[in-house]
Write a structure and sequence with these properties.
The protein has one domain: Rossmann fold (3-Layer(aba) Sandwich), CATH 3.40.50. Helix content is about 30%, strand content about 20%. It contains five helices and six strands, in the order βααββαβαβαβ. It has a four-stranded mixed sheet, covered by helices on one side. The chain is globular and about 40 Å long. The two termini are about 30 Å apart. The model is unreliable at about 135-145 (pLDDT under 50).
């Protein structure tokens, strides 16, 4: 499995530092498989610079500013749209927090491009359960349980 981690250029050193500091854990989790996560600059709204689409795009707490919603959505669509023959459309799994005025607007706009499947709150595993199942979380500060998770599958044309 190939993993690509993206952010704006100014934050790439922080992402690389995080990978370095967690190198032993990442190698253990990969269980000897080849490859290492790629850290790449991705400026929203510039299309898909990768030459292929992604099977799954994970995002968390991205919908904090109404003004960025159109470029965020255009980037998600570009990353999920098949580029090469035989590729399947990708999906976005997005975790979002409470108290974000942009959330309803984002979902309204996203429904034009994606089939939205909200994960009911009672089906969201608590962080303690995820940790018990072997998921890894690195906390820079105390966080709370996400308000919601949505799976977004690119609509067929």
């Amino acid at each position: 499995m190939d993993v690509t981690i993206t952010d704006k250029k100014s934050l790439l050193p922080l992402l690389n530092l995080n990978l370095q500091q967690n190198e032993d854990l990442l190698k253990q989790r990969r269980n000897g498989s080849e490859g290492w996560p790629k850290v790449v600059d991705l400026f929203w709204g510039t299309g898909n610079p990768f030459g292929h689409n992604f099977h799954t795009v994970l995002g968390s707490d991205l919908t904090y500013d109404m003004d960025i919603l159109p470029i965020l959505l255009s980037t998600m669509v570009a990353l999920c749209t098949p580029v090469n023959e035989g590729e399947a459309a990708g999906e976005v799994i997005l975790s979002y927090g409470k108290h974000r005025a942009a959330i309803p607007v984002f979902f309204e706009q996203a429904a034009e491009y994606f089939e939205l499947h909200h994960v009911p709150k009672e089906n969201m595993p608590p962080i303690k359960e995820l940790l018990a199942r072997g998921a890894d979380f690195f906390f820079l500060k105390q966080i709370s349980q996400p308000t919601g998770i949505v799976r977004m599958r690119l609509k067929q044309k």
